[in-house]
Amino acid sequence: MRRFLLNLLGFTVLALCLGFVVFLIALPKIQTAQDMQKADAIVVLTGGGGTRIRAAATLLAKERGERLLISGVHSAVQRRDIQDLFHLTPKAMQCCVDLGYRAQDTLGNADETAAWAQSHKYGQLIVVTSTYHMPRALIELRASLPAAELLPFPVKDGRHKGLENLRRMVVEYLKYVVILAREAVLSIGKST
């Protein structure tokens, strides 16, 4: 029995390591706002030291979507703060930018985005988040918005270097594995 458990542990570690390599290879590639196709709207999941919001603001300025949701905004942040930090015009802020304060995590981002997209009847969304976060974000968003077309616009989060970056990637990969397992269990439950 002990040998079986050691073999199982070894196989699990090997599978996770190989999966991590595949995860890194499959991360979406960076593209420019100019190359991004148009969609109904844009949603950005906060984080990344402002890089994500900056990219989403550029997409809005290039008219890649008619409206922008910034999901997961901290309760202390005001509209004026976003406008000033990301050089959005008052006109753009008034007509085209919505701030979502409810989301505390990626699942919350998905719920917040789904409610927003359904209220505006958006069927096609550009999703802006960090490259390493995109796979998990898309799974959560697809679960909340199964009929929507989601167009990934990954951005590079350059805040972390070396071992800190590797740690961040490993943690994100493990979260991704958990979400995949959850979705597998849910799909089995639905089919029975």
Can you put this structure into words, describing what you see?
β4 (124-130), α6 (134-144) and β5 (149-155) form a beta-alpha-beta unit. By secondary structure, this protein is α/β, with parallel strands linked by helices. The protein has a 5-stranded parallel beta sheet, with helices on both faces. α5 packs across α6 and α6 (134-144) packs parallel to α7. The chain has a domain at 28-159: Rossmann fold (3-Layer(aba) Sandwich). The chain has helices spanning 2-26, 51-61, 79-85, 90-96, 106-120, 134-144, 162-191, and strands spanning 41-45, 68-71, 97-100, 124-130, 149-155. It contains 7 helices and 5 strands; from the N terminus they run αβαβααβαβαβα. The chain is 55% helix and 14% strand. It is globular and about 70 Å long.
Short overview:
By secondary structure, this protein is of the alpha/beta class. It is built from seven helices and five strands, in the order H-E-H-E-H-H-E-H-E-H-E-H. The protein has helices at 2-26, 51-61, 79-85, 90-96, 106-120, 134-144, 162-191; strands at 41-45, 68-71, 97-100, 124-130, 149-155.
